[in-house]
Amino acid sequence: MTTQGDDTMYLSHNPTQDRLMALCRRAFPDCVQHMIGETYPIASRQHEMIAFKWGGRTPDGRLHHAPLIMRRYISTLSWWRPDDRGKAQRETTICRWLHDEGFPVPQVYLREFGPRGDVVLFSWLPGQALPVGERPLREAVEPYIDAFALLLADLHRLEPPRDVQRVVPRVSLPGALANLAALAASIGTAELSQAVEMVMERAYDVPEVGPVLIHGDYHLLNARLQDGEIVGLVDWEYSALGDPRWDVANAYMQLVDFGAADAADRFLSIYLDASGWEFEGEPLYNIVVPLQQWALSEWLIQQQAAGEMPEFSLAQDLIALRDAYHHRAEMALQWLGR
Question: For the whole model, what pTM was predicted?
Answer without folding.
Answer: 0.88
